């Protein structure tokens, strides 16, 4: 038996596009460690915080009918989670790239000490 499942291409969204989608009802899936989420995070939108390593066990907390935008410590972590969700049958999934540091740099709503995030989002940002 072949367990291979053809998956659609995972959509990547910059923080600006993500913020617009969140305003239209999407849910942000924050996959960072609980301590990091407690220190600083996204505000002004619906956020579900599940550490990346706990995602498989906590899938039931995610809404099937809404777009989910995954964000993690790294773009690779967000992509990994996004493809996992697609494999699990979620249809409206995207990965935020680059992530929280760029969200902060754009001046979007946050809570906590954003100074701890340091530098920029890195090269290749689609919304500089």
TrEMBL record:
PROSITE patterns: RHODANESE_3. Residues 22-112 form the Rhodanese domain. SMART domains: RHOD. InterPro entries: GlpE_sulfurtransferase (IPR050229), Rhodanese-like_dom (IPR001763), Rhodanese-like_dom_sf (IPR036873). Gene3D superfamilies: Rhodanese-like domain. This is Rhodanese domain-containing protein. It comes from Rhodobacter xanthinilyticus. The lineage of its organism: Bacteria, Pseudomonadati, Pseudomonadota, Alphaproteobacteria, Rhodobacterales.
């Amino acid at each position: 038996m072949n367990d291979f499942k053809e998956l659609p291409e995972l959509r990547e969204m910059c923080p600006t596009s993500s913020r617009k989608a969140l305003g239209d009802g999407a849910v942000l899936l924050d996959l960072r460690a609980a301590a990091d989420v407690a220190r600083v995070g996204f505000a002004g939108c619906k956020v579900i915080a599940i550490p990346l390593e706990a995602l498989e066990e906590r899938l039931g907390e995610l809404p099937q009918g809404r777009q989910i935008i995954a964000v993690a410590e790294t773009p690779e972590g967000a992509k990994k989670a996004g493809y996992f969700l697609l494999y699990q049958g979620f249809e409206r999934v995207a990965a935020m790239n680059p992530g929280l540091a760029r969200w902060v740099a754009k001046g979007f709503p946050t809570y906590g000490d954003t100074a701890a995030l340091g530098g920029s989002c890195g090269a290749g940002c689609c919304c500089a």
